[in-house]
Amino acid sequence: SCDVLFYFAGLGCGTLAVLEQNEAGIVLLRSFDWNDGLFDVTWSENNEHVLITCSGDGSLQIWDTAKTKGPLQVYKEHTLEAYSVDWSQTRGEQLVVSGSWDQTAKLWDPAVGKSLRTFKGHEGVIYSTIWSPHIPGCFASASGDQTLRIWDVKAPGVKLVIPAHQAEILSCDWCKYDENLLVTGAVDCSLKGWDLRNIRQPVFVLLGHTYAIRRVKFSPFHATLLASCSYDFTVRY
């Protein structure tokens, strides 16, 4: 199976490395360079060779791992760093959402050379944009304005605003087994679970990290298992 790693290589530039894990260990299959730091990456859901990155210059890049050079396309509309990118999970559509430090999220069709829509409402940097694995056209965004927001691409404005933390929220994820359950991770070192049917208080609070939580992910195999990684240099389950 293939996995993807992205990292910074040198001052002001980034490298996308495509890695394969086999019996010999982890092998570098392909690497691509970009002229700014790469902050996030997402695999295509309809082409095993295609992935999209986003970068510090506000652009999104489409890469083909079957080719030696790239990117195939570059989309630049965000006015500040593009910090998050995700490919839709529901199979009924092939859409990409990006989140930026310019406080906007943008909807993209990879076959179209410009964004389909821009979502405004956050009052701080957007750190995470994640599609629902259950509901077509629905995604969540987490922001430095301390809110988790739920959006419907067919609706005119934000669907739901959750004041999830009293600190910047750096990450969020959807439960793979419950369409109403999300988790947020924040600078306050806590993880909180949210039921969209009742947002007055979290359904769980997980403490233990000693620095800001950078990323949180629900397990695709177990409904009650999640993992988090933090600037305290630990991964916790």
TrEMBL record:
Q: Which GO terms describe its cellular component?
A: cytosol; peroxisomal matrix
Q: Which Gene3D superfamilies match?
A: YVTN repeat-like/Quinoprotein amine dehydrogenase (2.130.10.10)
- Has UniProt tagged this entry with the keyword Transport? yes
- Pfam families in UniProt: WD40 (PF00400)
Q: Where are the WD repeats?
A: 75-118, 119-154, 162-198
Name a single GO biological process: protein import into peroxisome matrix
State what protein this is by name.
Answer: Peroxin-7
**What is the originating organism of this protein?**
Manacus vitellinus
